[in-house]
Amino acid sequence: WGLARLSSRTPLATSYNYDERAGNTSFAYIIDTGINVKHRDFEKRAKFGYSSIAGQTGDGQRHGTHVAGIVGSKTYGVAKKATLIAVKVLDDTGSGTMTTVIEGLQWALQDAQKNKRVKKSIANMSLAGSWSQAMDDAIQAATVAGLLIVVAAGNNNAETAGFSPAAAPGACTVAATDISDRRAGFSNWGAVVDIFAPGVDIASTSKDGGSVRMSGTSMASPHIAGLAAYMLSIGKYRAPVDMCNYMKGLAIKDVVTDPMGSVNLLAYN
């Protein structure tokens, strides 16, 4: 339902309408638990990039593969032709540190710069920890360099400002809605939220080759990362803050119930 919601002005739509370029020139860095790059639904567009976890390169957890699928898998993806790059910063139990996460973010920026594709790239961070100045600084550096960072608001049903990377000023921060356009009960909220996107009972790729449904702002964020990758392939390059604002400008206004002081904007393509 999440994809269909992105291309409909009203809830409960069943089909996803999109431009067939669909991210074909875009690169999405998935900063997460890794990706099962062999999953058939990625059509060989998913690649291993980097791991800051010693001895682990795949996705033993499932989270990253699911997130990547929402960004760019053939069946479940917003940008169905984007190239997906696995940046593993969380281990196979889903744990990591601010250090491992920042290392991955810095690698993604350097890789995009090295391959001269910053203006065709976005990064998704569906992860959260307590607020960190170092994380804010790393995201600011990437943003200034031209790389859009899309982040999950977090799942604490709390004010988003206390969490990283959600509170980072340069990031595009995404809260979650359910199929009825209500703010998901778990979703963080508040002034630092930029936009809402579907995040409850979202079907996507599973690490063992099939599909699975998951819920979280972790699922909302890749809808926006995918939308940004999609926009980069069908339109002109926009600087990170401008791209986030562009997506906010396209969004449906005042349909989210219980936004809890967040901006009332629901993603639309």
From TrEMBL:
SUPFAM superfamilies: Subtilisin-like. CDD domains: Peptidases_S8_PCSK9_ProteinaseK_like. The active site is at D32, H63, S218. Belongs to the peptidase S8 family. Gene3D superfamilies: Peptidase S8/S53 domain. GO terms for cellular component: extracellular region. It comes from the Eukaryota. This is Alkaline serine protease. Residues 30-234 form the Peptidase S8/S53 domain. GO terms for biological process: proteolysis. One of its GO terms (molecular function) is serine-type endopeptidase activity. Keywords: Hydrolase, Protease, Serine protease. InterPro entries: PCSK9_ProteinaseK-like, Peptidase_S8/S53_dom, Peptidase_S8/S53_dom_sf, Peptidase_S8_Asp-AS, Peptidase_S8_His-AS, Peptidase_S8_Ser-AS, Peptidase_S8_subtilisin-like, Peptidase_S8_subtilisin-rel. Pfam families: Peptidase_S8. The keyword Protease applies.
